[in-house]
């Protein structure tokens, strides 16, 4: 069973990593392409706007050239000069009408030498000096053609109100730039002086083409550029190719920001602008009159939507590329998943089988890559473990059988020792009794050598009996039958008794037995503690040289009594210090031979001390002596 939470699984991580790996370049690509397209868009838009401006200017210039040519033709015409010279106003009017009809200016006006109107194409009114300012500029000079503002007073006799008047819609809060232009005309004006052969100023001719509501320029530009073009008189739209509610969007006002920038500050404005009903990328250029005064603006604009569509297109393409990238990432992670995770899961399953002891189950990875190799090695390992496991089980079975047999044998041995020891003890007691009877002369007098022989026999009987006692004790211990009779005993008294008992043995070697034992009562089996102390002191006597002394001490330490038996004997090699507490262990065979003994004493002591929940150990220095330590709890209650 898979216990790893889904988010932590290698497969999940792989999918996440793949998605991240796929997304990073896509996002970067998206950012870079958006940035590039924005830059490109701005550049293209700027170029387009400049192109549009140039186109619009060219169209205006063409128109100016046309009207200039017409006027030049007018003043060079002999009829004009003769009629002006003769003040033939009727003829002049005819000429004015004819010029107007052939070359389509909105009106033609003739002036006399003082600038008074002598004939006009659009009415019979004469004698006014409506165009005084314009006329003055050509006196003693050449003519000129330019864009001019003709205010409503100057054109009042031209019958062009129909062409000029525009309803101004809306206001701009902080400025009022509409009043000054109300009913004024922006016009392409050409005015040329007319001289006689002697160079005397006869008058002048003026042709004017009103731009208000004249859409020829803006439509020509639209034909060429497909974009929006508008002519402003001051801040009011007077001609445009932008449609609004089915008509031309004229009469509306430019924004204050653009007005200030272009009309007041005289700079070309580039930027976004909301025109009628959509956003445009625009340029507004000032229009100057012949006095270099800004009289309006030329606007060109290209709808932003074209470029936004391009941008959206790129964004969509990036999105599609992103989706494809993601899809590829998912497919790749799926394939990796199949190639790595599946074999890994198989191997994990295999490891679980092995840990559950199902070595016969085989991991199936049929790829011929490293995983395939790993699976083969894994299966081989499982087979080997299976074989070893079978062997181990067999050995364990054998061991168990052997162990049981040994245990049985050991039990038999202990029983045998117990029986034999027990059976030996009775006759031995009887033998000892009889030997003592003979030795003490009860059975009659014996000579010295007989006595010596019997004494040796008696000593060996004692040794034999002690050996049997020890063997009996040990077999009891092994069978858990060593019984303890715990009572309050005085340790000092026990030590005194043991010393008293062993004094003869010590005296034989002139060894002094000293004691420094505190008067302490403990809970213990008196006979067994006596047995332990007897054994330790006896050993001390046995392994001490003659004329030495042995010290038995006992002090109270917290809840324990600490007993020490110290001699200045042969000492015990370090390597043997623990082993001497094992059964039948003696330091070396020569000692054994010299000193006798069975190697059982200390083993019995250890068992007795431990049965009292105490501990026993030895500290010794070779050649200097040994100290046997015993720790016994004062009370054995837990
Ligand atoms: P044994 O009957 O041989 O004395 P023990 O179990 O009492 O058996 O002692 C085991 C061995 O430990 C001894 O044979 C001896 O080599 C060593 N040993 C015991 N007590 C001393 C001691 N006081 N000094 C030196 N060696 C000792």
Automatic annotation (TrEMBL):
Position of the signal peptide: none
Topological category with respect to the lipid bilayer: Multi-pass membrane protein
Enzyme Commission number(s) of this protein: 2.7.13.3
InterPro entries to which the protein is assigned, alphabetical: HAMP_dom, HATPase_C_sf, HATPase_dom, His_kinase_dom, HisK_dim/P_dom, HisK_dim/P_sf, sCache_3, Sensor-like_sf
Compartment list: Cell membrane
Catalytic activities: ATP + protein L-histidine = ADP + protein N-phospho-L-histidine
GO molecular function list: phosphorelay sensor kinase activity
Gene Ontology CC: plasma membrane
Keywords: Cell membrane, Kinase, Membrane, Phosphoprotein, Transferase, Transmembrane, Transmembrane helix, Two-component regulatory system
Keyword Zinc-finger assigned: no
Domain HAMP: 338-390
Keyword Ubl conjugation annotated: no
Domain of life: Archaea
Record-linked CDD domains: HAMP, HATPase_EvgS-ArcB-TorS-like, HisKA, PDC1_HK_sensor
Residues annotated as transmembrane: 14-32, 318-336
Residues in Histidine kinase domain copies: 419-636
Enzyme class: transferase
Family matches, as PANTHER family: HISTIDINE KINASE (PTHR43711:SF31), TWO-COMPONENT HISTIDINE KINASE (PTHR43711)
Name this polypeptide is given: histidine kinase
Organismal lineage: Archaea, Methanobacteriati, Methanobacteriota, Methanomada group, Methanococci
């Amino acid at each position: 069973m898979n216990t790893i939470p889904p988010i932590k699984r290698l497969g999940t991580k792989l999918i996440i990593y793949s998605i991240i790996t796929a997304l990073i370049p896509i996002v970067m690509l998206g950012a870079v392409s958006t940035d590039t397209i924005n830059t490109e868009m701005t550049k293209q838009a700027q170029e387009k706007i400049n192109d549009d401006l140039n186109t619009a200017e060219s169209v205006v210039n063409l128109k100016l050239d046309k009207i200039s040519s017409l006027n030049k033709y007018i003043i060079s015409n002999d009829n004009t000069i003769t009629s002006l010279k003769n003040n033939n106003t009727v003829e002049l009017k005819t000429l004015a009408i004819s010029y107007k009809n052939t070359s389509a200016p909105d009106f033609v006006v003739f002036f006399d030498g003082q600038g008074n109107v002598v004939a006009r194409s659009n009415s019979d009114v004469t004698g006014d000096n409506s165009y005084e300012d314009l006329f003055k500029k050509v006196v003693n000079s050449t003519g000129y053609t330019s864009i001019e503002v003709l205010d409503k007073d100057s054109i009042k006799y031209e019958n062009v109100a129909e062409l000029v008047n525009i309803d101004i819609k809306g206001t701009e809060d902080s400025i009022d730039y509409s009043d000054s232009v109300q009913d004024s005309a922006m016009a392409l004006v050409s005015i040329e002086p007319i001289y006689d052969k002697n160079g005397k100023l006869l008058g002048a001719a003026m042709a004017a083409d009103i731009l208000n509501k004249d859409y020829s320029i803006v439509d020509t530009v639209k034909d060429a550029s497909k974009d929006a073009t508008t002519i402003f008189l001051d801040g009011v739209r007077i001609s445009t190719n932008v449609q609004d509610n089915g008509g031309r969007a004229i009469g509306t006002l430019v924004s204050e920001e653009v007005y200030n920038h272009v009309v007041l500050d005289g700079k070309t404005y580039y930027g976004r602008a909301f025109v009628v009903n959509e956003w445009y990328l625009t340029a507004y250029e000032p229009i100057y009159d012949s006095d270099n005064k800004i009289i309006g603006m030329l606007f060109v604009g290209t709808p932003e939507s074209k470029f936004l569509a391009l941008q959206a297109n790129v964004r969509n393409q990036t999105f599609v590329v992103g989706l494809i990238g993601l899809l590829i990432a998912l497919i790749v992670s799926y394939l990796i998943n199949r190639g790595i995770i599946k074999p890994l899961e198989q191997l994990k399953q295999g490891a679980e089988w092995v840990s559950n002891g199902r070595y016969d189950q085989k991991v199936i990875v049929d790829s011929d890559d490293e995983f395939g190799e790993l699976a083969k090695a894994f299966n081989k390992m499982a087979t080997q473990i299976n074989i070893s496991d079978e062997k181990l089980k067999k050995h364990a079975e054998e061991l168990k059988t052997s162990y049981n047999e040994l245990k049985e044998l050991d039990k038999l041995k202990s029983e045998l020792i117990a029986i034999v020891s027990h059976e030996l003890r009775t006759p031995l007691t009887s033998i000892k009794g009889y030997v003592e009877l003979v030795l003490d002369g009860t059975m009659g007098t014996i000579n010295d050598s007989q006595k010596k022989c019997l004494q040796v026999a008696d000593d060996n009987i004692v040794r034999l009996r002690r050996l049997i006692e020890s063997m009996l004790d040990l077999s009891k211990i092994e069978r858990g039958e060593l019984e303890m009779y715990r009572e309050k005993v005085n340790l000092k008294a026990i030590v005194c008794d043991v010393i008293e008992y062993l004094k003869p043995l010590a005296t034989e070697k002139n060894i002094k037995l000293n004691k420094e034992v505190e008067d302490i009562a403990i809970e213990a089996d008196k006979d067994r503690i006596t047995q332990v102390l007897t054994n330790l002191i006896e050993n001390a006597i046995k392994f001490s040289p003659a004329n030495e002394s042995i010290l038995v001490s006992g002090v109270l330490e917290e809840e324990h009594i600490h007993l020490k038996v110290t001699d200045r004997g042969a000492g015990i090699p370090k390597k043997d210090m623990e082993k001497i507490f094992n059964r039948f262990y003696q330091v070396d065979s020569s000692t054994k031979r010299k000193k006798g003994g069975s190697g059982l004493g200390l083993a019995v002591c250890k068992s007795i001390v431990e049965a009292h929940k105490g501990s026993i150990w030895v500290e010794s220095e070779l050649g200097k002596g040994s100290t046997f330590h015993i720790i016994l709890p004062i009370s054995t209650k837990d």
